[in-house]
Design a protein that fits this description.
The chain is mainly alpha-helical. The protein has a domain of about 220 residues: MetI-like (MetI-like fold), CATH 1.10.3720.10. It contains 14 helices and two strands. The radius of gyration is 24 Å and the shape is globular. It starts with 8 loop residues before the first helix and ends in a 5-residue tail after the last helix. This is ABC transporter permease.
Length: about 325
């Protein structure tokens, strides 16, 4: 009897199935299944992220298109129709903008700034932490002293200082277009020290191990040792700090926007919506403030809870 020919795709499919089975049997997935709070937090975070990413498709209205706005729709209470017959589930603001649509579009800005600022802080902090922990000496002393000075001040004050200096350097006609990138730079530069200190400590432990000594004996370039050997072994704590740092970056962006030094009014974030809603809180239009504030709380809390779970799941001593 002749054997049936095997498809070249069968080993690939088998490898994918085995990897999926390994993931389902892993400690991380077991820890995830055993934590109802983490499951709920991940569902909330996923819903909010998808709502922000697909805002142009899901939002009932375009809240920032002047051609679609009507002042007759202004100050409509939640779950009611306006004078023009439009339905607003979360109500409308004084300009007739749908609060629900504004939250969807505002979440896009908050998440983009938070992710970009966290990635910038992570890349900068991990790079400096690897250099300080591996080479030591003057590099370590200089980088860590700068980090100590920065950690002695609140991150929001450092971000305000950096944002103010950047606004003074950039020409006035270019400030609105560069505001988001300046905000990302300010928040990222204010939060790199946590990554650097953590990676430095882990690198000082890893550089004493045999595999690093073997790479040195073979004459491997020190920077290749850092990238290929040391970096993969210090990424666990970095992922935890990055997840928690994402929640902090979103809150910092909202704080700066609430103070009026964040994103421009043409691209409002959740912080800008909260600042606008605060002006109408005591006149009875509570929904303009309440729903953006709840969205911000749910977003930051769910990401923070995921970071706490990731910390416990990656640390065997906490299981």
């Amino acid at each position: 009897m002749t054997d049936l020919p095997h498809s070249p795709e069968q080993p690939v499919v088998a490898a994918k199935v085995s990897r999926w089975k390994m993931f389902l049997a892993s400690d991380i997935f077991w820890s995830y299944r055993r934590s109802p709070v983490t499951i709920l937090a991940s569902i909330i975070a996923l819903i909010l992220v998808l709502m922000a990413v697909f805002a142009p498709l899901l939002a009932p209205y375009d809240p920032f298109n002047p051609a679609t706005l009507n002042l007759m729709d202004g100050m409509t209470a939640p779950n009611t129709e306006s004078y023009t017959g439009k339905y607003f589930a979360f109500g409308s603001d004084n300009q007739g903008r749908d609060v629900l649509s504004s939250i969807m579009y505002g979440s896009r800005v908050s998440l983009f700034v938070g992710f970009a600022a966290t990635m910038f802080a992570m890349v900068m902090g991990v790079g400096l932490g690897l250099v300080a922990g591996y080479f030591g000496g003057l590099w370590d002393a200089f980088i860590m002293r700068v980090a100590d000075v920065q950690l002695s001040f609140p991150a929001i004050l450092i971000a305000l200082l950096i944002f103010g200096v950047a606004r003074g350097v950039i020409p006035a006609n270019q400030q609105e277009g560069a505001a988001i990138w300046v905000l990302i730079f300010a928040i990222g530069l204010a939060n790199w020290a946590q990554f650097a200190r953590t990676v430095r400590g882990a690198t000082m432990v890893e550089r004493q191990k045999d595999y690093v000594a073997a790479a040195r004996i073979l004459g491997v370039n020190p920077f290749l040792i850092l990238l290929r050997h040391v970096l993969p072994n210090v990424l666990g704590p970095v992922l935890v700090i990055g997840t928690i740092g994402l929640a902090l970056a979103i809150i910092e962006e909202a704080t700066l926007s609430y103070l009026g030094v964040g994103v421009p009014p043409t691209q409002p974030s959740l912080g800008t919506l909260i600042r606008i809603g605060q002006q109408f809180l005591f006149s009875g239009e509570w929904w303009i403030l309440l729903f953006p504030a709840i969205t911000l709380i749910l977003l930051a809390l769910s990401v923070n809870l995921l970071g706490d779970w990731l910390r416990d799941a990656l640390n065997p001593k906490l299981r």
